[in-house]
Specification:
There is one protein chain. With 138 residues, the chain is mostly helical. 80% of the residues lie in helices and 0% in strands. It contains five helices and no strands. The longest helix is centred in the N-terminal third of the chain and has 35 residues, at 8-42.
Length: 138
């Protein structure tokens, strides 16, 4: 078996594309969860029930608390913008938390046969896992 070595320029180009892709995913994840968390914190429960359905089966404090958790985790995904040394561990912790949250919500939506929200959680899970695995070794 032979091994091939990429020229330095090709290796750097791949690293740049990977970094840009991961930052794009991080931005999308943060935008989604900032918006979702803000909505859960500020919208009346009747609107949330109409939009999502599941808040009808949960106490209001739990829905509001989940909104706060989503906001904190979304900001953690953006923490490396301030400092890579301090922000990277926060990013890894936040992305791991979001993977757990998205997995739970995927199961809840699938069991309640809400296919649209289950697919959204599946896509978010894919983005978040990519960020977690990509930044874990960076």
């Amino acid at each position: 078996m032979t091994t091939t070595h990429l020229p330095v320029a090709q290796s750097r180009t791949r690293a740049v594309y990977k970094n840009v892709t991961l930052w794009t995913f991080q931005g999308w994840i943060a935008m989604f969860f900032i918006a979702a968390g803000y909505a859960k914190l500020t919208e009346p429960m009747t609107n949330l029930i109409t939009l999502m359905g599941w808040p009808a089966m949960a106490p209001e404090n739990m829905v509001r608390g989940l909104g706060m958790v989503e906001l904190v985790l979304a900001l953690g995904v953006l923490a490396p913008l301030v400092s890579w040394r301090v922000g990277r561990p926060l990013l890894l912790t936040a992305s791991a938390g979001l993977v757990v949250l998205e997995s739970i919500m995927l199961v809840i939506h699938a069991l309640s046969q809400d296919i649209g929200l289950a697919v959204v959680n599946l896509v978010l899970l894919g983005f978040t896992l990519s960020v977690f695995l990509g930044r874990r070794t960076a």
